[in-house]
Amino acid sequence: MDRRKLMIYTGMLIAGITAGYICLERHRPVEGILLLAGIAGSFAAISEQMGKEYGMTRKQLRVMLLFLMVGFFNFALNYNRYYTDETLLKRDQIAFKEMKILHVREQEKYIAYEGTAHLPSGRRRILCRDYSENRSPLSVGTVARVSGELSLPEEARNPGCFNYRLHLKGKGIVYTVNAQGIRTRSIFRRPTDVFHRKLQQRRNDFLDKFRHRPTVRGFLKGILFGDRGELEEETYREFTENGTAHILAVSGLHVGFLIALLNALARKRKYWKITMGIFLVLILYGELTEWSPSTLRAVLIAILSMSGMYLNRAFDLTTGTAAAAFGVLMVQPYQLFQTGFIMSYLAILGMAFLTRPLSHFLGEGLASLMSLQMMMIPFQIYAFNRFNPLTVLINLPIIFLASVLVPCGVILFLFSGLISSGGIPAESISRLTELLVGLNRMLHMNGSLSGSFTSAGTAELILFYLILLFLSSELFRVMVLRRDGTNLRRLFLILTIPALLLVLGFRNPLAGAEVVFIDVGQGDAIHLRSGGKNVLIDGGGDSKRNVGTGTLQPYLLKNGARTLDLSICTHLHMDHYRGVQELSEVLPVKAFALPGVYRGLPETPKGARLLRRGEVIRISDEMSVKVLWPESEELPGGVTEAESSDENLLNGVYRIDYRGIRILVTGDLLEEGEADMVKYYAGTQELRCDVLKVAHHGSHSSSSEAFLDAVRPKAAVIQVGKKNRYGHPHQETLEKLKRRNIPVYRNDRHGAIGLRVRRNKIIVDRMMN
């Protein structure tokens, strides 16, 4: 086996954490336990078959299995530590009055405080946001009185999309609260709190030297301290799409310079006092950056490297990386699922594993950069769904300028007390920052070089990296040199079992659904996918957020759709249509259709296909959409063109026919429209359906008794947002459905809802149980 045993043991720890995550966080205990058993059994088989030839002893196997179980149970303990439910939340809310502030981050629209509070469920870490107009940051160590309602962070509500709750667990945060009021009760005078306050003040004083240049201030705050809170959204998007956003994470570049500077000042003398002094400076810098994953990794590796130099022991980058990851994951296993943690360690693994083989073709310097990019690009596409094919070339000048800006910025910070805001040093740093940001903007070319890409599955990405690391490992090279094809085939065959279990554990809960009711908050959006085609009926919309780029685009790209073949709207109300408008600006939408009653109206989009009653839109051999309403292309009786601004009166109704089942999509159909439809289709089976998309988000102005009797659905879906201001769905509507024994599925409770048909039976999948 590989000589770097700590790397193997850390890998087993990660495998155990992954099994625990599948078992507990993804609520798939069978798959999680089977994966754990599959990994243990596979390595036992490898030890039995190949142990003697490749130096894998029984003792080593036992240690590996020990760390596998340590990872699993450590994750289980932390899961229990952060566990809460609605009952505990209510008890904690009653008791929540104040919190001690540990970290402060000033954002553009609010101030974010991280702190702790002693509650009935235990000592909880809380993220508090202050949106008040006259807000000013409180100091670290302050005990603040907070008025506001505790809430649980949102889980992923659509398949493949961002899980905010999991993200915050990586920081130890259990609750969030939007403060209605926050004020100081007392200030701790302990030395550590005083130290943190002075450190925070020193950083703010330095950044205030650039207050008249918000772009410079925000960028320096990001590149020097890893805090992107004041970075302009457009600037960060440009760095992300260029693949250069990694320079905004405090990493080896920053720490390496600090070590070089300190070594130069110490004239490379190996006195233990000098070494301890360097350790202390690194820890201070970690405190300044609030110990982001990349900072923590860089500092830990630097300390291990310098310890090796002091003890006259050779330092191995792979082992050092494994040691740093092992220490972090033992303390906080949820870090494994943080994007920052993953990217930080992928970068260093790329350099450790791929630089040597690539250096034969590219040379040492270029191979180092290329290895980092090769390791990062697949994950960047997976996480952000964007890729610029020229990212390697763009990184060359950007990294060069960053390597100049970072040391100059650090030196300026160290001597900031002696420098004025308008002085030559501050002006030079400002010009250099503007040059870097401007060059990145020029190379961005308005996003013309970068494109949107769909994501691979989580399990597939993990397997890709495992195979890549194995092909770059010493073990593989030894097997190739020995021409040991038999054991190589045996190894891959044995590991097929845990690989399949991994795919099973990470499977998309709605992967097989051909009809998906997307959770867009208070609005409708239905994704149809069949025969390689992607169609959207309605697209949600909100006056306070961009549903198109914030919800629809990530959902579609995470679920294999780079383009929309057709977008159909029931009507042009904001909560049905605006999301489609926003989406069309960032994702190709080949065609747009809406009811023919919109013909000639001023609000009708140009180029829209106008649908007639009875028209059938064929999506594939198995799926079609039939237009049932309005009755004609003329405005409903009694409605003038001036009154047509009430979009609900122009509402279209569609029926999805798929594999023998019917789904009725009603938009915001009102009771008058329902009555007209029932009368028009009396004596026919046109309105009969298996699944009803309840009209108008479950409002009492829809879903009349007569209409429900005519439709006779076997199941109902209500597209409604959590805690919406309209009180949807109304209890009256829910009672009507309950009296008919119709099961109800709701976006506010279940997240996205998927329908699939197997053997003429409807199977309902939900993101949340």
From TrEMBL:
- The main location class comes to membrane
SMART domains in the cross-refs: Lactamase_B
Q: Provide a GO CC annotation, any one.
A: plasma membrane
| InterPro entries assigned to the protein according to its UniProt record, in alphabetical order | ComA-like_MBL, ComEC_N, Competence_ComEC/Rec2, Competence_DNA_uptake, DUF4131, Metallo-B-lactamas, RibonucZ/Hydroxyglut_hydro
Which keywords has UniProt assigned to this entry?
Answer: Cell membrane, Membrane, Transmembrane, Transmembrane helix
Highest taxon listed in the record's lineage: Bacteria
Instruction: Report the locations given in the UniProt record.
Output: Cell membrane
- Kindly give the membrane topology term recorded for this protein: Multi-pass membrane protein
So where does this one cross the membrane?
6-24, 61-79, 245-264, 271-288, 294-315, 336-354, 366-384, 396-419, 449-471, 491-510
Leader sequence segment: none
Record GO biological process: establishment of competence for transformation
Instruction: Give residue ranges for domain Metallo-beta-lactamase.
Output: 522-722
What PANTHER family does the record tag this protein with?
Answer: DNA INTERNALIZATION/COMPETENCE PROTEIN COMEC/REC2, RECOMBINATION PROTEIN 2
Name used for this protein in its record: DNA internalization-related competence protein ComEC/Rec2
Q: Which organism is it from?
A: Mogibacterium kristiansenii
Kindly list the organism's lineage: Bacteria, Bacillati, Bacillota, Clostridia, Peptostreptococcales
